[in-house]
UniProtKB/TrEMBL annotation:
The chain crosses the membrane at residues 20-44, 146-166. Pfam families: PK_Tyr_Ser-Thr. GO terms for molecular function: ATP binding; protein serine/threonine kinase activity. It is found in: Membrane. InterPro entries: Kinase-like_dom_sf, LRK10/LRL21-25-like, Prot_kinase_dom, Protein_kinase_ATP_BS, Ser-Thr/Tyr_kinase_cat_dom, Ser/Thr_kinase_AS. Keywords: ATP-binding, Glycoprotein, Kinase, Membrane, Nucleotide-binding, Serine/threonine-protein kinase, Signal, Transferase, Transmembrane, Transmembrane helix. This is Protein kinase domain-containing protein. Its main location: membrane. SMART domains: S_TKc (SM00220). Belongs to the protein kinase superfamily.
Amino acid sequence: MSANYFPSLSSLSSDPSSISISFGGGVIVVVGVLGFVVATCGYLRCIRFIVEKTNAESRRVTLPMVQFLDDMESEKPIRFTSKQLRLATNNFKTKLGSGGFGTVYKGVIGNNQVAVKVLNGISKERVEEQFMAEVSTMGRTHHFNLVRLYGFCFGSSLIALVYEYMVNGSLDNHLFKKNNEAMIQFDKLHEIAVGTARGIAYLHEDCAQRIVHYDIKPGNILLDSNFCAKVADFGLAKLCNRDNSHISLAVGRGTPGYAAPEIWMCLHVTHKCDVYSFGMLLFEITDRRRRDMAVIHDIREWFPVCVWEKYEKNQLEDLIKDCKIEEKDHEVVKRMLKVALCCVQYKPETRPSMSFVVKMLEGHILELLCLSL
């Protein structure tokens, strides 16, 4: 340490008022030396505390995570401190929801309402995996139909993601209300389906690296104040090069009832697994009832099979009437059911691309693909 780091005694003020409080030159020297010693000890203790804290932090953060955080410095997301997020959420006062990943809280940053997703309740390895999946995908994507990631926090006391706040919550809160009470009108549901398809198409076809979501379902489609759809929750997402024909998965991903069969059968998985999940989403949008495979005793009771059988017999109109959909919406619903059948075909290669799905839903393509469940 340089001898000039601390001020010399000669640099002290020579103002008479300051000198008048001293009781003699010897006392001044002693007090000055003691002050120097105390200041030095305090400084060394401070340095030791910082070093120990830094070492503890570095022990906690793995090398891949350190590299990842360095890479994110050049990207758009803001890195918040835990103190900033505690202030933004009023010490995590208002809970929006929770799950296996952790808990989401409502907050305010500047003039923007935000949703702060705190990752906890799972293993450290799983937290880091989910954190990197969400930040690496959402931090590099910008599309109207994808929920916006404002920033993140990664520290010893808090690991969190800061998203734009969606005032109307998730789609499943509106699809599965009891007695069909206060349901969204079907023309708006059609817009939600098209918006969701556009968001997924962007992930698959317009990003520098293809992004596979793996968990498309009503709970992961968020709705803004105008009920515009935004795909959310990229904790299972995976980046892949476009020239890769398939993706290797160590474990199954997705939600039963929505996940493609190849995921659970340990077969080669491609981005077409998202297409399958979107098809299942379309079935639930048209049926507006949650169908649990666990309570189905006969496969013919499963809604996609019912739709397929009616389609083969040219009786989709009868099925639509059973779903209690207004007559003015019948043609749109019929188109959506046909698109859903295209999406859930067993062989991934027979499923359409999501950009093709958008065109079919919008009515720009009248002849649908050849179907073979």
